[in-house]
Design goal:
heterodimer; A: 504 residues; mainly alpha; 2 strands; B: 160 residues; flat
Chain lengths: 504, 160
């Protein structure tokens, strides 16, 4: 392994490779800030450039740089505009945007940059140590376990719901799952719930729904209720640096989520999205009671958790790609395509046949993370200034980028009408205090959930897969406990309160 | 009845229609060999319709105890907020959606950005117009020329 690391260092530290990493991170960060252009589309756009270079190591290092940059850029638009362009950064907006609203945009971006750096770097260390061993564990996960894992992900909505909100959160998740069934599923080539509308044949687009659920209602709320002058709301950017106490409080979160995120990322199909939601849910559930109430209102821990987890998961997703040749996510699938075009076949023999590529990619992950941190920290005050743009200019631009995000992906004007329609519905739901995040989570995981459920049902000829596979049963039991946990906790609190009232 | 219950009632209606489609109409045209499968295209929607209806009932009958919360906007005093501006901006978005293809990106986006600011009360034309035009061109250049995603800049009859 040491030989490999040295070989990787030698390759990755050449001037050409360093330029590739820096260029990739910069391109990824800036384009990733545009809602609607996620890492997948940016990497797809960059493929011709990468392939024309002819050197597989340089190509994958450039694309990997773009990947990390895009994830970080996506977090920026989630934090500043509440417009997550990528599913993996949806959870970032839960606490990042409230922080920006409180005038702590700079601090939120700093926390995001540090959390991403730590998640990515710890992920890279884990990748180096565990890659060979993990490839065999990833193969143990079958569709039944994936189904159960998705159920756990959805049950984590209990974490998003406060007191009295569990039913609403569950209802929103189910509505999200229902919206996910619109169109032609992959398992059955049969259009469902399209009402004969051709544009719905391929289902609703994720970006449209994300914009409609988050960015549009937020912009409308800003129009309806403009912040009073002098209220300090998002007009000034207070302290960019985090205090020692804050650093102390997020350190364990970053440690835990780097590991958890990495291992979730290793599972093909799970990826950064589930890792970020689960990371948020876990941290919320284990936080002390007082801090728990802060989640969703601008908690620094609530921002650090998903940011760390999604970066660690991105690194983790390279394990199945590099060791088995199985792309775990859409983005790694595109990377696989690029590698094959460059005459490199990822798989168990990559580490033996072409160690310089394997190790150069891993070493470039460290460099990429350092470059991202070095580039972004000085830029944060300027990026955060977006919020000081006068409202009369900012709102039309938020609406415009919302529309563009939905349009670019599909090149279909009907998508814009769907966006406005869904946006109005989302605003009404927001008026009635329905949480909108579970709807989007349901929609994102819905397709995968149904596919894995259908596959397990077919393999085991019914629901026998639940009892036949112990891991599935354990995960499902965990899901049930996640849903029941809030009500048990509130009951306990009630009993405690009664005792205190009785003078016990 | 509070707004959240009204919405629960509407979603219940939606779940019932969704459920009706899943339980009674979806499997009508299913090929016989597919009927021997343990899972049908309607299986998952059937489960969802039941779950959705149950959750709606929970909210409708207020089974769960609510916590009093101060919301950003109180819908009962909606008339006190700038509803007119919000409706105008939404209408502008619809017009933009309808105009984007026929009028081309440059014209429709330029108008959208300028009119959007005007609706919000901006009257500094000397700032508004140049900013809108420059950013329109910048976004078009970035999307079409740099990223290679086609977006018609002008109306088709311009011949460009």
């Amino acid at each position: 392994m040491l030989d490999g690391i040295l070989l990787g260092l030698q390759t990755a530290f050449s001037i050409q490779m360093l330029l590739m990493v820096i260029g990739g991170c910069l391109i990824g960060t800036f384009i990733g800030m545009l809602p609607g252009l996620g890492p997948m589309s940016i990497i797809a756009i960059m493929i011709p450039v990468a392939i024309s270079m002819g050197d597989p190591a340089a190509a994958i290092i450039l694309l990997a740089g773009v990947y990390y940059g895009a994830i970080f850029g996506g977090s920026t638009s989630s934090i500043l505009l509440n417009a997550p362009g990528v599913a993996g950064t949806v959870a970032t907006s839960f606490d990042g945007y409230p922080m920006a609203k409180k005038g702590q945009a700079g601090k939120a971006l700093t926390v995001a940059a540090i959390a991403s750096f730590c998640g990515g770097t710890i992920g890279a260390v884990l990748l180096m140590v565990f890659a060979p061993a993990l490839s065999s564990v990833a193969l143990l996960f079958h569709s039944a376990e994936y189904f159960a894992l998705m159920v756990v992900g959805l049950s984590a909505i209990a974490a998003f719901a406060g007191t009295g909100q569990v039913a609403k959160a569950l209802l929103m998740t189910v509505v999200g799952l229902m919206l996910g069934t619109v169109g032609e599923g992959t398992m059955f080539s049969l259009p469902r719930f399209t009402m004969g509308i051709m544009d719905l044949q391929s289902g609703l687009s994720f970006v449209t729904l994300a914009m409609a659920m988050f960015a549009l209602p937020e912009a409308l709320f800003l129009v309806l209720n403009p912040p009073k002058p002098g209220s300090g709301k998002s007009e000034e950017i207070k302290g960019l640096s985090i205090t020692r106490q804050e650093a102390k409080s997020i350190a364990p979160v970053i440690g835990r989520q780097s590991i958890q995120g990495f291992f979730i990322g290793v599972l093909p199909g799970a990826g950064a999205t589930i890792a970020s939601f689960l990371g948020y849910a876990v941290e919320r559930n284990i936080a002390p009671k007082g801090e728990q109430k802060e989640f969703g209102k601008g908690s620094i821990k609530g921002l650090a958790a998903p940011e760390t987890a999604n970066n660690a998961a991105c690194t983790g997703s390279f394990v199945p790609l590099l060791t088995l040749g199985i792309p775990g996510s859409g983005t790694t699938a595109i990377l696989l395509g690029a590698l094959i075009a460059l005459n490199v076949t990822p798989g168990p023999r990559l580490m033996i046949d072409e160690p310089q590529i394997f190790w150069a990619v891993i070493i470039s992950m460290y460099i990429g993370n350092i470059v991202l941190l070095v580039l972004n920290l000085p830029l944060i005050p300027y990026i955060a200034k977006i919020l000081t743009i006068p409202r009369n200019y900012l709102i039309p631009y938020i609406l415009f980028f919302t529309l563009m995000g939905a349009y670019i992906g599909q090149n279909n004007a009907t998508e814009l009408l769907i966006l406005v329609g869904l946006g109005v519905c989302a605003t009404a739901l927001k008026f009635a205090d329905y949480p909108l995040a579970p709807l989007l989570i349901g929609f994102i995981l819905g397709g995968m959930l149904e596919d894995n459920f259908a596959r397990s049902m077919q393999l085991y000829d019914g629901v026998a897969f639940i009892t036949a596979r112990p891991m599935t049963m354990i995960l499902l039991a965990l899901a049930v406990s996640l849903i029941l946990l809030p009500s048990i906790r509130s009951k306990q609190a009630k009993i405690k309160a009664n005792r205190v009232a009785d003078g016990d | 009845m509070a707004l959240d219950r009204w919405i629960a009632l509407i979603i219940l209606g939606f779940c019932l229609i969704y459920g009706y489609t899943a339980w009674f109409t979806m499997d009508v045209g299913l090929a016989p060999f597919m009927k021997r499968n343990p899972i049908w295209p309607s299986t998952f929607p059937k489960i969802l319709s039941v779950l959705g209806a149950t959750a709606s009932f929970f909210i409708l009958f207020g089974v769960e105890k609510k916590e009093d919360k101060v919301l950003d906007i109180d819908y009962r005093r909606l008339h006190e907020y700038k509803v007119g501006q919000a409706i105008l901006l939404l209408s502008l978005m619809i017009v933009y959606a309808l105009l984007l293809r026929p009028a081309g990106f440059m014209i429709s986006t330029g108008f959208f950005l300028i009119l959007g600011s005007v609706i919000l009360g901006e009257r500094k034309w000397y700032m508004m117009i140049p900013i809108a035009l420059i950013s329109t061109f910048f976004v078009w250049y970035l999307v079409q020329e740099v990223l290679g995603i086609y977006m018609r800049p002008y109306p088709a009859w311009f011949g460009v």
